[in-house]
Amino acid sequence: MNSPQTAHDLEGKIIIVTGGGSGIGRASSLKMAASGSKIVVVDYKESMGLETVELIKRAGGEGIFVQANVSNSKEVQHYVQTTIDTFGKIDVLFNNAGILQDFKKFQDISEEEFTRVIDVNLKGIFLGMKYVLQVMDQQGYGNIINTASTTAVRAEHSLAAYTASKHGVAGLTKAAALEYVRKGIRVNAICPGGVATPLTDSVPSQLQASGYVPEEFPNMRIGRYAQPEELADIVTFLASDKSSYMTGSILVVDGGMTL
Ligand SMILES: NC(=O)c1ccc[n+]([C@@H]2O[C@H](COP(=O)([O-])OP(=O)(O)OC[C@H]3O[C@@H](n4cnc5c(N)ncnc54)[C@H](O)[C@@H]3O)[C@@H](O)[C@H]2O)c1
């Protein structure tokens, strides 16, 4: 629960959350709504997105759902336009939707699998930034938070396509932070390590199937997965004016995984 001091950190802000139907996106949507913002939940899974909006409303918050595949340019433009038509501005984009690739030896990754992962994890992030930056540039303010991963700062075994996509997210984050640093627009990325969400449910069985068994798994040095709410706290901070001097940061939130 939010303490009384933090309850209104995001009062009046309009925040888009992609991948808001599950995991880190859902937990962040709930926390940021409880902090006073209105949330535009974007997901390609309609039932999950609607459920997040229902949870927001049940807790006394405000939000709408827009169904979109983040790697489809038209659908990205649609969620941006719907946000403007409904709320008139965009304060924050939490550009978070992403997928995991199948654990595979580098040489066995199919071209289709590589394209599938890059399309969502990198092109999806690019499209969200591109169309939201057009709005933010006109507004003269804005704040973008991209979800990268510890694989943005180091490689993960048997996850070459995912690693490449997340390194790319770090690159897009820094490039936009640099270009818009004098335009009132901040751009940062979070790098979760292991978070207990549906995305990681299948990791143990996938590792077994891939034949790669790390010496230490899960290699969370802190001894456990993060709960999505622990990432939501960081996202809420980045979305607030309390992080006003942060831009271009690639923020590792990994329980010591990359030590
Ligand atoms: N869980 C982890 O351990 C972990 C670690 C590092 C980074 N991440 C990153 O965090 C982000 C969120 O992951 P999560 O763990 O909450 O996973 P999740 O599977 O619980 O949630 C991801 C959400 O994104 C949506 N989504 C996927 N592809 C989409 C698309 N093309 N268009 C629209 N929506 C789409 C899904 O429907 C789902 O609701 C991802 O970018 C992931 O790569 C997760």
Explain what you see.
There is one protein chain. The protein is of the alpha/beta class and 259 residues long. It has one domain (14-253): NAD(P)-binding Rossmann-like Domain (Rossmann fold), CATH 3.40.50.720. The protein contains eight helices and seven strands, in the order E-H-E-H-E-H-E-H-E-H-E-H-H-H-E. It has helices at 23-34, 46-58, 73-87, 111-139, 160-179, 198-201, 203-210, 228-239; strands at residues 14-18, 38-43, 62-67, 92-95, 142-147, 185-192, 250-253. A seven-stranded parallel sheet has the order 3-2-1-4-5-6-7, with helices on both faces. Strand 2 (38-43), helix 2 (46-58) and strand 3 form a beta-alpha-beta unit. Helix 1 packs parallel to helix 2 (46-58), helix 1 crosses helix 8 and helix 4 (111-139) runs parallel beside helix 5 (160-179). The protein is globular and about 50 Å long. It binds nicotinamide-adenine-dinucleotide (NAD). Nicotinamide-adenine-dinucleotide is lined by residues 19, 21-25, 43-45, 48, 69-71, 96-99, 120, 124, 147, 149, 192, 194-195, 197-200.
State the end-to-end distance.
Answer: 30 Å
Distinct bound molecules: nicotinamide-adenine-dinucleotide
**Rounded Rg:** 17 Å
Alpha-beta classification:
alpha/beta
CATH superfamily: NAD(P)-binding Rossmann-like Domain
Q: Can you tell me the residue ranges where pLDDT is under 50 for at least 5 consecutive residues?
A: 1-5
- Major beta-sheet overview: 7 strands, parallel
Return the CATH class.
Alpha Beta
* N-to-C order of helices and strands: EHEHEHEHEHEHHHE
Determine the strand fraction and express it as a percent band.
15-25%
Mean pLDDT across all amino acids: 94
Q: What's the β-strand tally?
A: 7
CATH topology description: Rossmann fold
What CATH architecture would you give? 3-Layer(aba) Sandwich
From the spread of the alpha carbons, the general shape counts as globular
The total of helices stands at 8
